[in-house]
Write a structure and sequence with these properties.
Strand order of the largest sheet: 2-1-3-4-7-8-11-10-9
Radius of gyration: 25 Å
Distance between the termini: 67 Å
Number of strands: 20
Strand content: 5-15%
Structural class: alpha/beta
Number of helices: 25
Shape: globular
Helix content: 25-40%
Length: 615
C-alpha cells in the first residue's frame, strides 16, 4: 500500500524533494494555478508524468505566491530545458467569478476550498514573472486558459477584446488542446539544442513572429489568414467571421494553419495532431500516477475538485456535440479518442486498491458519457467534413452510434467483485440513444444501453442537459428538440417502473443564452412545471473565450449567417430570465407577473400560475 508521506512517489515540489529524488538539477519546471494532485484528471500531473516518461527530471510548483518576494518562482532555480505554465484545470477568470461577475468565495482546486491562491489571468501573471526573472530560459504555456485564448478573443470580465495570450504573456510557445504529443516533441528538440525560436513546425502549437519574418513550416499545411486583431477591435462582424474559420479548422481532420496579424507581429496557429490512437491515449492513462494529492497538503483540508473525481475514470476524450456554449471540442477536439478496454479495466483495478475505496466508482465516462469508441463509418467522408457537430441538426448517417462497446465495458466493470456500483456521472447525449438509425440491431442496443444505465449506473439521479425548451433557442445551441427530452422522461419513468426503481431525472438548463428571450424562459418554466420538475441544476450563461455563443454575446452577429441575434447583456435582463427557473418561489412571483404583463403576455401568466384543477 502506498504511504502518503513517501514524497518520492510524486514529482518534487521543493528543493528538499529534488534532493530526495537524488537529482542535482531539473530539466523542466512546471508552474500551475491548481494544487498538485497526481491524478490523470489534472493537466499538470499528466504533462509532468509524460515528460518524466521521457527520462526528464521534472518538478511542479503549485499555486506559487505572486504577491511577495517571488521566492516560489526562484526556489528551484533555472531548469536545464524550459519552464512551463498553466493556469490550471479551469480558466482563472471562470474559477474566480460568477456569471454575474461577483467574486467567488472558494476555489475547488485549493486545499480547504480556500480562495486567493491564484491571480486573475494566472497564465499571464506567472509568465511575466518568470520572463522577468529568467529572460534567457524558454517558456511555454498551455492548459485550458492558454488554449482557448490563442487568438483574438472576447474577455467577459474586462468586457473587451483581448489579443492572443502569447502577446500579453511574453511566452515563447503555446500548446493548445491536449498537449502531450506537442510537449514531447518540443522537449526532444530543445534537448538537442535547437533554439526555441526555430521550433515553428510542431503541430498544435502557436507562436509569434514579426509580420514579415520568414519561418520554417510544413509544405502540406495550407494557410488561412484571419482578420487582424486591430481589425477585430473596430469591426465586430470581422471578429465574428473569424470565429467561423477558427471553429471550422478546429473541427477538421486536415486543418489549415491559421495566421493573424497583431500590430507588426503575427500569431501563427499550426494545425492539430491527428486524433490519438488507442495505444497513444492508453500510454497517457497508464503512467504511474499515485492518484492522490501531494503530501504537502496533509492536514490542510480536503481539495473539493479532487473529492469529486478521486474514484472516477475517464474512458475517452473529445466531443462531437458542437454545443455553442461549450469549449470541449475547441480544446479536446471533435473526434473521439477512446482508451482500450484493457487500459480502463486496469485503472478500475487500481482504483479498487485505493485505501479509501468503498466500492463505488463515481464516474465511468468522458466529456459526454456515451461517445466511447464512436467514429465515422467511412473516414474519407469525415476527412471532407467541416460540420461543427456530428449530431446536429440530426445525427450524421456516417456516424456509428452503436453503444455496444460501452455496454460490454460497463458489464465487465460491474463484474469486478470489488466494485459495488460504477456510476455514470458525466452527461449523456440522449439524442444518440433515441434517434433511430437504419440498423434495428443498433437501435435495440442503444435502448438497452439506456436501460443498463438506469438500472445499474445511476446513484438515484440521472443528469442530462436539455438546456432549454424553446426549439428556436435549442437550434441556436445546436441541441435536439425538447420533444426528445420529453420522450426521454417518459422512457425514464417507464424503465424505473419496470425495474421497480425510484429514481430522479435531473435536467440542466441555461438562462440568458444568446437567442433566448423572457417569453422563451416563461415557456421553459411552463413546460417543466407541466412535467412536474422543480429545477435545481441551472445556470446563467457565462461568456467564455472561444465559444460561438460568446462571439454572438459580444458582437451581436451569428458568425455563420451574419444574422443579428438578441442577447440579454445587462444585469437586469439576465436576472429577469433567471427568475423563471424559480417561478414557484414567492419572492419571484410578482416580478414575473409584472414583466409578462408588460409584454402583453397574460396568457403565459395564466399558464404558469393557474392551478392544475379548478374547483
Amino acid at each position: 500500500m502506498l504511504e502518503k508521506t513517501d514524497s518520492t512517489k510524486w514529482l518534487p515540489t521543493s528543493k528538499k524533494e529534488v534532493k530526495e529524488h537524488g537529482w542535482d538539477s531539473l530539466d523542466v519546471i512546471l508552474f500551475t494555478g491548481d494544487a498538485y494532485i497526481d491524478h490523470p484528471s489534472f493537466g499538470s500531473a499528466v504533462i509532468g508524468r509524460i515528460l518524466e516518461s521521457e527520462g526528464l527530471r521534472v518538478a511542479i510548483v503549485p499555486q506559487p505566491n505572486w504577491t511577495d518576494d517571488l521566492r516560489d518562482f526562484k526556489k528551484l532555480g533555472k531548469p536545464n530545458l524550459f519552464f512551463a505554465v498553466s493556469a490550471g484545470n479551469m480558466d482563472s477568470m471562470v474559477n474566480h467569478y460568477t456569471a454575474g461577475k461577483r467574486k467567488r468565495t472558494n476555489d475547488a482546486y485549493t486545499p480547504g476550498g480556500r480562495f486567493g491562491y491564484r491571480p486573475d489571468y494566472a497564465t499571464i501573471t506567472y509568465s511575466k514573472i518568470i520572463k522577468e526573472l529568467f529572460p534567457d530560459v524558454p517558456l511555454v504555456i498551455g492548459g485550458i486558459e492558454a488554449s482557448l485564448r490563442r487568438l483574438t478573443h472576447y474577455d467577459y470580465w474586462s468586457d473587451k477584446l483581448m489579443p492572443s495570450i502569447l502577446a500579453d504573456s511574453q511566452a515563447d510557445l503555446l500548446f493548445y488542446g491536449m498537449g502531450e504529443k506537442s510537449i514531447i516533441d518540443f522537449a526532444r528538440l530543445v534537448k538537442r539544442g535547437i533554439p526555441v525560436e526555430n521550433l515553428t513546425t510542431i503541430p498544435q502549437t502557436v507562436f509569434m513572429v514579426d509580420a514579415n519574418e520568414e519561418y520554417a513550416t510544413k509544405k502540406n499545411w495550407d494557410e488561412l489568414e484571419l482578420a487582424s486583431h486591430d481589425t477585430c477591435l473596430v469591426n465586430k462582424k470581422e471578429f465574428a467571421r473569424n470565429f467561423m474559420h477558427i471553429e471550422e479548422e478546429s473541427n477538421k481532420m486536415e486543418a489549415k494553419k491559421l495566421v493573424q496579424r497583431i500590430g507588426n507581429k503575427k500569431i501563427v496557429v499550426n494545425p492539430p495532431w491527428p486524433t490519438f490512437k488507442e495505444k497513444e491515449i492508453d500510454k497517457v492513462y497508464d503512467l504511474p500516477y499515485t492518484r492522490l494529492p501531494h503530501p504537502r497538503y496533509n492536514n490542510k483540508g480536503t481539495i473539493p475538485a479532487y473529492e469529486m473525481i478521486r474514484h472516477s475514470i475517464n474512458i475517452h476524450r473529445g466531443c462531437f456535440g458542437g454545443c455553442t456554449f461549450c469549449t470541449i471540442s475547441a480544446h479536446q477536439g471533435k473526434f473521439i479518442a477512446s482508451r482500450s478496454e484493457k487500459s480502463v479495466l486496469k485503472e478500475v483495478e487500481k482504483v479498487t486498491e485505493m485505501p479509501d475505496f468503498k466500492g463505488y466508482i463515481s464516474d465511468l465516462g468522458g466529456p459526454s458519457a456515451n461517445m466511447y469508441k464512436m467514429k465515422g463509418i467511412h473516414e474519407e467522408i469525415c476527412k471532407k467534413c467541416k460540420r461543427p457537430s456530428c449530431i446536429f441538426p440530426s445525427v450524421c448517417k456516417n456516424l456509428d452510434t452503436d453503444h455496444k462497446a460501452m455496454r460490454e465495458l460497463y458489464a465487465k466493470v460491474r463484474s469486478n467483485p470489488k466494485v459495488k456500483k460504477a456510476f455514470i456521472g458525466s452527461g449523456i447525449r440522449y439524442d444518440m440513444i433515441l434517434e433511430k438509425t437504419n440498423n434495428e440491431e443498433v437501435n435495440e442496443t442503444n435502448r438497452q444501453y439506456l436501460r443498463d444505465v438506469i438500472k445499474h449506473h445511476v446513484s438515484g439521479r440521472l443528469k442530462v442537459a436539455p438546456e432549454h425548451s424553446s426549439d428556436e433557442v435549442l437550434k441556436f445551441m445546436r441541441k435536439p428538440s425538447f420533444k426528445l427530452f420529453e420522450e426521454l422522461n417518459e422512457e425514464f419513468i417507464k424503465i424505473n417502473k419496470e425495474e421497480n426503481l425510484n429514481q430522479q431525472l435531473i435536467p440542466y438548463f441555461i438562462s440568458s443564452h444568446p437567442g433566448s428571450k423572457s417569453e422563451d424562459m416563461a415557456n421553459l418554466a411552463i413546460q417543466t412545471k407541466n412535467m412536474n420538475f422543480r429545477l435545481e441544476q441551472v445556470q446563467d450563461f457565462t461568456p467564455t473565450p472561444m465559444t460561438l455563443a460568446t462571439v454572438v454575446y459580444y458582437s451581436g452577429y451569428h458568425p455563420y449567417t451574419m444574422e443579428e441575434i438578441y442577447t440579454a447583456r445587462n444585469k437586469n435582463a439576465k436576472e429577469k430570465q433567471r427568475q423563471f427557473f424559480f417561478w414557484y418561489k414567492k419572492e419571484y412571483r410578482n416580478q414575473i407577473i409584472r414583466d409578462l404583463k408588460a409584454k402583453g403576455r397574460d396568457d403565459l401568466v395564466d399558464q404558469l400560475f393557474k392551478k392544475k384543477t379548478d374547483k
